[in-house]
Specification:
35% of the residues are buried. The strands form 7 sheets. Strands 23-24-25-26-22-27 form a 6-stranded antiparallel sheet. Strands 6-10-9-4-12 form a 5-stranded mixed sheet, with no helix packed on it. It has 45 helices and 27 strands. With 959 residues, the protein is an alpha+beta fold.
Length: 959
């Protein structure tokens, strides 16, 4: 039996004729075919052409789904269904499509309904098979027909947010998790897809490509493994280890797994570092072997136990694995790929403790450099050049054919003398510059490698055929601007438009030059020709700077309608031709800076910084835009990119804007305290670093700010007063000193982004041991309650009837760690953190092993909070009188203790000491003001700031 969906190019002529008739699957799938055997140059029965037709039906899929991998998975499902319909091997599929269409369902939705039915039965077959044999024999076609009959109800019950890619990925990953490693061909057979459709899966971070075109699940292979590392004195001093080199697999594993970090541990930096080692393992010393356990739920560090697999066995297997990849003698392999291949080769190493990978490489006679392993004699310089090309291509999102063009263009630049250019080579260069991203990547490469890219492209523009000159002239303009010669760049753009008035990249760049020169009308006219929705916000801003004067009916020589008595051309027309006042152009000037950042290729850096600043919050559209704006201000002013802007584009700006930017380049972010608010107009600030009083015009922000607020922001001079650029970040009092210290230390954009990310991160609830609260519960069958009780008595402390408890001592207090209950034929394990639950599970492993697992759940603290909803809309249940009295007494006692306890936000002083210290009294007032603003939810109890002020003698300081 052939697998439905695999019709390829071998379909019979009779099938093609049948498929092309009116009212057939082909005409339903591709309505524009209308009975013809071919649609333009594309044949829907040909697998490759069909793929292009389906892609054409989804023109904006990458943007809609947020990534190429998800888009490819979405298209793969459509190709699966199209193959089944056109093959005719399962007529029930076409019958179901007709039934759903007659019921009024959309064709696109019907395709996803059919795909969902297929992936349901495929997933069952993949789970049952457990081998790498042809999964087609395992698919239950009767079950598939049942799933088809259940449509549309079964599909409508699915999560509305599923965009059609989850089933494809889940089904594929289930096979990889069962098998460990599966070849492309075998996996394609199991999925019922053409091999080419696995490209999206291979680009997913969860999947690692091994030798002989085998794919494997990274999380399935690494889960439970303990990697070891010898600590250095520098790492102990920094209290962190960099997750690169031999520890690169740890960073890769954290990217794809949802594991928590053990108490005290944290990740920091765009180059990830595992920090907080001393909190997790206090007694550290140089030379100590640290173990990093990649637990399925928790990543933890421990003093490394002895390896579970002999080093010589691992070293031998490592050599064999590297050989099996079949790489050239001087080509290294990634550490991650080699480790995963090793775990496939030696299943006994999975879940075990491995010696340091750098030590194993040495034993195997291999070199470890960075994140790569190679034989002795690797040309690392040549490899680094290749990696540089790959890195530059990744920055510009160059993949597939675009990457190939980029590499060839770089090779031509390295090996070609400019005088030797002829028309053939010039035209070839033009053909390689297929888009702006390739040109930008090429400029990056030439700048890093000290190549004369500009001369090469200018010479190619002169030697090329007329058809290619516009593109090459435009390319020369871009490189001239990049080299700091914007006047030559502007001239070349105009020449490109003369050669080809409809060449869109040149139109966009011409609009950019017009905007920088202050010609809003020309910029708008050019951008509107592009009809690009992505440019609408920029066009809307530029329209604010268009002349708004209407010429009188009598013409320019008529009396001016303003009533001045002068002619219109000598009065308001002159005013219309003048630029708006400099303060009014600050938003436009900021847009010029952001446009330049985007053009210069900082998009990826801005996106990374924005993600860090979001602090783990969902990246909704508004938050993302806010953080991107703030990221731009950090790159420009903190990292100093504004000086580069002035070098590259400054010659184009009006003189007053150029001078203003020169002043901006000398200023920077600061921490401000809001002294006064004029709603809808502006705010008065006090710069806490300089003590300077600053009046800032701020319409929208002034509606939200209050006196006493702290802000991390950049207030820039606008020619008359001050304005904010790049957004403002509210600061809690506790973060004020850290923010000021970071600015005083002149840290970079990355460090400031991390500081903001910590502020924006959702609050975490922890237990008395500092572990994130996650309620964990597992329920097992327990028919032997009497015998079970005796075994539990030997391990835990007995509580009330049917309860056993684990207690520990924390700071001299007895704390309940975990609970076990036995009743009604069930054994129930309960703990309030992943770490506590893991410890309890290990303790009770002899008891629970072999028992039927009835249920298991994990509920995070955030979910627990959402469950605590009011009993009625807007109201909370009143506690009993005795409970209210007890709570009031508890709060009063806590207030009395708080005023005499050290407070970090007060520099370690107690509130009473701060009240008596003139240098700290102001901080105390600000802290109480912050308490006022943090009003508790209805029914909650909190400190009474009025009582606190009375205790501290600050009644007059209340706001």
């Amino acid at each position: 039996m052939s697998l439905p969906g695999r019709i390829g190019n071998a379909t019979s002529e009779a099938t093609i004729v049948r498929a092309m008739r009116e009212h057939t699957p082909a005409s339903w799938l591709f309505p524009s075919i209308s009975g013809r055997a071919r649609h333009g140059a594309l044949d829907p029965v040909d697998a490759n052409d069909r793929s292009q037709l389906i892609a054409a039906q989804h023109p904006d899929l990458v943007e809609e789904l947020g990534g190429e991998n998800r888009a490819r998975a979405h298209l793969a499902l459509h190709e699966l269904v199209a193959g089944q319909l056109l093959s005719g091997e399962l007529p029930e599929v076409w019958a179901t499509a007709q039934r759903l269409s007659a019921a009024g369902h959309d064709r696109h939705d019907i395709c996803h309904m059919l795909a969902a039915a297929w992936t349901t039965v495929f997933h069952d077959a993949a789970t049952r098979s457990g081998t790498a044999t042809d999964a087609a024999q395992q698919i239950d076609l009767a079950a598939y027909r049942v799933e088809l009959d259940r449509l549309p109800e079964s599909w409508l019950a699915l999560d509305e947010d599923d965009e059609g890619g989850e089933d494809f990925f889940d089904a594929a990953l289930s096979v990889l998790e069962i098998e460990g490693a599966v070849s492309r061909a075998e996996l394609a057979a199991r999925l019922g897809l053409e091999e080419e459709l696995l490209e999206a899966l291979e680009r997913d971070r969860e999947v690692v490509l091994l030798d002989h075109d085998r794919l494997a699940s990274l999380s399935a292979l690494l889960s439970g493994v303990t990697l070891t590392h010898v600590l250095s004195a520098a790492e102990i001093a920094a209290d962190a280890v960099l997750l690169d080199g031999a520890l690169a697999p740890v960073g890769a594993w954290l990217e794809v797994c949802d594991a928590e970090l053990a108490a005290g541990l944290s990740l920091s930096g765009l180059e990830p570092r595992l920090a907080g080692l001393t909190a997790a393992l206090p007694a550290l010393s140089p030379g100590m072997r640290l173990g990093i356990r990649l637990g399925p739920d928790v990543l933890s560090v421990l003093k490394a136990p002895e390896p579970t697999v002999p080093d010589d066995l691992l070293a031998d297997a490592m050599r064999r694995c590297l050989e099996r990849f079949g790489l050239p003698e001087k080509m290294p392999l990634g550490v991650l790929e080699l480790l995963c291949s090793l775990l496939v080769e030696l299943p006994e190493a999975r879940g075990g403790v491995l010696s340091e990978l750098d030590r194993l490489c040495e034993l195997a006679g291999l070199e470890l450099r960075g994140d790569y392993v190679g034989r002795h004699g690797v040309d690392w310089e040549d490899f680094d050049r290749t990696r540089e090309l790959v890195s530059l291509a990744a920055m510009r999102d160059l993949e597939g054919r675009d990457f190939d063009r980029f590499v060839v263009l770089a090779a031509i630049a390295e090996n070609t003398e400019v005088p030797a250019l002829d028309r053939e080579l010039a035209d070839r260069i033009a053909g390689l510059i297929a888009n702006r991203a390739i040109l930008q990547g090429f400029a990056d490469f030439c700048e890093l490698n000290d190549l004369e890219a500009r001369r090469l492209i200018e010479a190619a523009a002169k030697a090329a055929s007329r058809e290619e000159r516009a593109l090459l002239t435009w390319a020369a303009s871009a490189l001239a601007t990049r080299a700091g010669d914007p006047i030559a760049g502007e001239t070349a753009v105009r020449q490109a438009l003369v050669l080809d008035p409809d060449f869109e990249p040149a139109i966009e760049d011409a609009a950019w030059y017009a905007s920088d020169r202050g010609d809003a009308a020309q910029a708008v006219a050019l951008l509107e020709r592009l009809e690009d929705d992505a440019l609408e916000s920029r066009i809307d801003l530029l329209r604010r700077y268009l002349p708004a004067v209407v010429e009188p009916a009598g013409g320019r020589n008529a009396a001016c309608p303003c009533g001045s008595g002068r002619k219109f051309k000598q009065c308001c027309l002159l005013g219309a031709s003048r630029p708006q006042p400099l303060p009014a152009r600050v938003a436009w000037l900021w847009e010029k800076l952001v446009w330049w950042l985007e053009w210069s290729g900082s998009d990826a850096e801005l996106a990374e910084l924005a993600e860090v600043m979001l602090g783990g919050r969902p990246p909704d559209a508004i938050a993302q835009l806010v953080e991107l704006d703030r990221a731009a201000s950090f790159v420009l002013f903190v990292d100093g990119a504004i000086a580069d802007f002035l070098d590259e584009r400054g010659a184009l700006l009006p003189d007053d804007e150029h001078n203003l930017l020169g002043q901006w380049a000398l200023s920077g972010h600061s921490v401000y305290e809001v002294s006064e608010v004029r709603a809808g107009e502006g705010v008065t600030l006090r710069d806490l670093r300089s003590g300077e009083r600053v009046e800032v015009a701020e319409r929208q922000g002034s509606l939200l700010l209050k006196a006493g607020d702290l802000l991390l922001a950049h207030a820039v001079f606008d020619g008359a007063g001050y304005q904010f650029v790049g957004g403002i970040q509210p600061l809690p009092l506790a973060a004020r000193d850290a923010a000021m210290a970071a600015l005083d230390a002149e840290v970079g954009a990355e460090e400031l982004a991390e500081l903001i990310g910590e502020l924006n991160a959702p609050p975490t609830m922890v237990n008395r041991e500092g572990e994130a609260i996650v309620v964990c519960e597992a329920v097992y069958a327990a028919r032997d309650e009497a015998a079970l009780s005796q075994r539990l008595d030997a391990l835990l402390e007995r509580g009330e009837e049917g309860h056993w408890e684990e207690w520990i001592d924390v700071d001299g207090q007895r704390v309940l760690r975990a609970t076990v209950r036995v009743s009604d034929g069930e054994l129930r394990l309960l703990a309030n953190s992943l770490q506590r639950f893991e410890r309890l599970s290990r303790l009770l492993a002899p008891i629970v092993d072999g028992r039927e697992l009835i249920a298991k759940r994990q509920v995070a603290a955030s979910e627990i909070a959402s469950m605590a909803a009011p009993q009625e809309e807007g109201s909370w249940a009143d506690p009993p009188a005795e409970v209210s009295q007890a709570l009031a007494a508890f709060v009063a006692d806590a207030e009395a203790r708080w005023v005499d306890e050290p407070v970090p936000a007060l520099g370690g002083l107690t509130p009473r000491q701060a009240a008596d210290d003139p240098t700290r009294r102001e901080q105390l007032v600000a802290l109480l003001h912050e308490f006022d603003r943090q009003s508790p939810p209805p029914g909650a109890v909190s400190f009474d700031t009025g009582r606190l002020r009375a205790r501290l003698g600050l009644e007059s300081a209340a706001p």
